[in-house]
Amino acid sequence: MRVLAFEDHYDIESILTAGGVKVSELVIKQNWNSNEALKHIQGFAPDVLLLDHYMPPKTGLQVLESLLSSDVNRPQTIVAMSSDTSRNKDMVLLGADIGVVKFQLADLDIWPR
């Protein structure tokens, strides 16, 4: 499973590892900013896209809006993973599949155990 994360403060692989996810079965790429987000999404072609809301220069919501209005293939699963639950709800309303506080990311049933 290919996982692309846009998160500027916390190491996503470490969060998943600490939560018991078999990261050896994942290919994880993390971008620490949202510069050229669509280019990264198109180039990496993730199965799972993780979006933090508060991330420069574009928010996760803005990245999601751009993705959904583009011709870039939509990842199978889009996870809104801000620490602010209201921002996750905004992304889910726009079209994300799941909203979760990032520190509970490993609890999702989408990961190999």
Write up this protein.
The chain is of the alpha/beta class and 113 residues long. The chain is built from four helices and five strands. Strand 3, helix 3 and strand 4 form a beta-alpha-beta unit. Helix 3 packs parallel to helix 4. The longest helix is centred in the C-terminal third of the chain and has 10 residues, at 85-94. It is globular and about 35 Å long. The two termini are 13 Å apart. The mean pLDDT is 97.
Q: How is the biggest beta sheet arranged?
A: 5 strands, parallel
β-strand number: 5
User: Strand-residue fraction?
Assistant: 15-25%
- Poorly predicted regions are none
Instruction: Briefly note the structural class of the backbone.
Output: alpha/beta
Count of separate DSSP helical elements: 4
Order of helices and strands: EHEHEHEHE
Q: Averaging pLDDT over every residue, what do you get?
A: 97
Q: Helix amount, in percent?
A: 25-40%
- End-to-end Cα distance: 13 Å
Strand order of the largest sheet: 2-1-3-4-5
- The shape, in one word, is globular
How big is the Rg? 13 Å
